[in-house]
């Protein structure tokens, strides 16, 4: 049986998202699965994958997802071998006037409990930025009150965060224009490279909308980071806006105190997390290192790129520190949380 064509509508603005989903379903003839329906389940993504194949509409299904949905998990689930659905579009509804503030929120979304995991939480800003980054189309709502200069900045920011997504200003009149938003979609696969930070790392970042305030940086440095200096840089300088407003940065890094581990650098607004991805000793002869040191994509407003680059360089090891070697590095003060370890001999 051929997988059912599914388009997802995501975004944190529930009323606008719901209205747009209804408009789009009506104009395209797709079966609408509202957020209230999949949100009844502890796992909205699994619920959507179970419901969508039952559609009797030739056009397929349109699933509106609640704000707790991790779009990365959605794309992974629908791209899994044997999935009964084919995700051919992710349409993200964004409130144009609130985008910058939404990306700097510090609160978390509590996910519904599941048998294997009673509860978990995710930074709301991270869910918001991921929805934009994975989108094939971003629809800006409530843009009318913005001055032309403000709207230009918002549109360029969205395009820098998601350079392969199309942008559309929502028209309050509704109607046939909505149906024209869907083009022949290509099924989302497991290896998504839409995010702006990913295209920066791949040297493929070429947004078609620009604005004097919106900037991006591909930062590389093969030297490990001194964790104490990095913490001071993030807390005392980056967060306080010394280099402009860094809204999104992500990629790979290494701490000198944990130099055998390549870590994921994942930052949005005021939230940042570092998590282990690969250990050098676990790599086979044919495996490649994810990164020797830092490989970061950085996006923000009013960025002082030279100053930010110099500050990141200063957080890396100096010549003398580098020459001292890992034994000396292990004595550096490391203020970041320890990474959990798993005994390979335990179940």
Automatic annotation (TrEMBL):
Highest taxon listed in the record's lineage: Bacteria
Transmembrane regions: none
Domain CobW C-terminal: residue ranges: 214-316
PANTHER family: COBW DOMAIN-CONTAINING PROTEIN DDB_G0274527, ZINC-REGULATED GTPASE METALLOPROTEIN ACTIVATOR 1
Protein name as catalogued: CobW C-terminal domain-containing protein
Originating species: Kocuria varians
